Amino acid sequence: MRLGLFGGTFNPIHLGHLRAAEEVRESLQLDRLLFIPAARPPHKNATAVTPFAVRLEMVRLAVADHEQFEVSDIENQRPDKSYSIDTLRWFRQESGPAADIFFIVGLDAMLEIETWREYQNLFHLCHFVVLDRPGYALDDLHQILCQKLHCRAENDGQLFCHPSGRQIYFRAITRLDISSTQIRRLAAQGRSLRYLLPEAVRRYILTYKLYC
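RE: above sequence
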């Protein structure tokens, strides 16, 4: 089993998220890719985040027509904050030691990995897939992985090997200039959301007057 885990606030999920997930799924030949909405993100103000049930439903609508995309509510099953270390431990236990688990994060998030709870232990549980982000360079990733986490760079800096034996893959994905912040702002202004997110999600936002 090759399992991808894609966490995020998804407030709301949009075509940029979906295209990135599809490119990772295809390039790493994943059997399944799970979207995991954060229930109580530790780095965000809880009162500023749309309720979990609403974000979960939007993700479900977004992935409904993809056979290998699924959504998990695992982070809402815990009463505490949504720490990645707890989520990864749960999936490792459920999947067994033989499964290859790939945790998908943005380059901006990876550069802050030292602020994550038990970040040193994350690399013992899974491989990482790091997606490029506008305004960030591969040299930044090389610095934190090689100098601070003692990884070995291979394949012209596109692949890094952690001392644990896990691997960190860098992926330059198709950049769609779409953000959840932008979508929320457009919705608040009563402007069109067409072609920024799946049609089912757009209709859901309009039906329930989200972000207005």
